[in-house]
Amino acid sequence: MERTFIMIKPDGVQRGLIGEIISRFEKKGLQLLAGKFLQLDEEAAKKHYEEHEGKSFYDPLLEFVTSGPVFAMVWAGDNVIALTRAIIGKTDAVTAAPGTIRSDYAVHTNFNLVHGSDSVENAEREIPIYFSEHQIVSYEHTIQRWI
Ligand code: RTP
Ligand code: MG
Fold first, then answer.
1. Which intervals hold domain Nucleoside diphosphate kinase-like (predicted)?
2. Which residue has the higher pLDDT, 25 or 143?
3. Ligand that comes closest to the CA of residue 58
4. Ligand-binding site membership of 3 (annotated)
5. What is the 3-state secondary structure (H, E, C) of 97-115?
6. Could you say which of 3.40.50.1480, 3.40.50.2300, 3.80.30.20, 3.30.70.141 is the CATH number of the domain covering 3-139?
7. Contact 4/123 with Cβ under 8 angstroms?
């Protein structure tokens, strides 16, 4: 089963959207495998966003994601990476499709509420930054029969 790393960013937490965001993934029929409320230190943030080092938005991005608590999760399901990216919407709230999280709730690219891994390689690289394997559960998801 494909896995992905999802993180509700500090703006999503502060705006009271944890439940709303989790609800969208739950209602889709995806399976929650792990969840953790934490504040990122600079080292973890740098590891997470290493692919963006040197870009113009890198420093503000690090400052933003370390500015307050985040809610980190692992979700699973067939095509979970593509499905969660579709539910989240494009990076820029202006071009994100209506009905996506970023279109419905975000205004600026810099504060776009939620992160989702963009490939299997990145998901498997990001998950261990936040979770050890024993913190990730494995259970029969009975809803799978219906979706
Ligand atoms: P994320 O990694 O957070 O899920 O977002 P993403 O894939 O949609 O976008 P990505 O290109 O990976 O960029 C990571 C985060 O950096 C900020 N960003 N700002 N001002 C800009 O042009 C710009 N581009 C990216 C956003 O917060 C984005 O989510
Ligand atoms: Mg990304």
1. 1-138
2. 25
3. 1
4. no
5. CCCCHHHHHCCCCCCCCEE
6. 3.30.70.141
7. yes
- Whether the CB of 116 sits within 6 Å of ligand 1: yes
Length of the chain: 147
Q: Is residue 134 classed as helix, strand or coil in its secondary structure?
A: helix
Amino acid code (one letter) for 28: K
In the chain, the amino acid numbered 73 is M
Q: What is the DSSP letter of 142?
A: G
Residue type, position 84, single letter: T
**3-35 residue pLDDT tens:** 999 999 999 999 999 999 999 999 999 999 999
Q: Which atom of ligand 1 is nearest to the CA of 51?
A: 12
Q: Residue 145 above 90 pLDDT? A: no
